[in-house]
Amino acid sequence: MPPKLVVQGLSHHYPDEYTGEDVHALDNVSLDVDEGVFAAVVGPSGCGKTTLLNILAGLLPYSVGHVKVDGIDVTGPGPDRGVVFQEHAILPWRTVARNIGHGLEIQGMASEERKKKVQEFVELVNLTGFEDRYPHELSGGMKQRVALARTLCADPVIMLMDEPFAAVDAQTRITLQEELNRITMATKKTTLLITHNVDEAAFLGDKCFVFTRRPGKLKATILIDIPRDRRVWKDLLHDPQFIEKRDEILTLVREEVSPHGDD
Amino acid sequence: MNPVQSLSIAVQKLFGRQRLRRIILGSIPFIMLLSLWRMNTVNEWLPPVFIPPMASIIEAISILQDECTGIGGILTMNPGCLFTNHVLSSLGRVGLALILGLPFGIAFGVLAGMNRRVSNVLEPIGVFANAISGIAWVPLAIVWFGIGAMTTLFILLNTIFWLVFFNTLLGVRSVPSVLENSVLTLGGSRWNIITQVYFPGALPSIVTGIRMSMGFGWRALIAAEMIGGDSGLGFMIFVSASEYKIEEVFLGVIVIALIWMFTDRSILVPIEKWTVQRWGMVWRPS
Question: What are the sequence ranges of the domains in chain B?
Answer without folding.
Answer: 3-45, 61-277
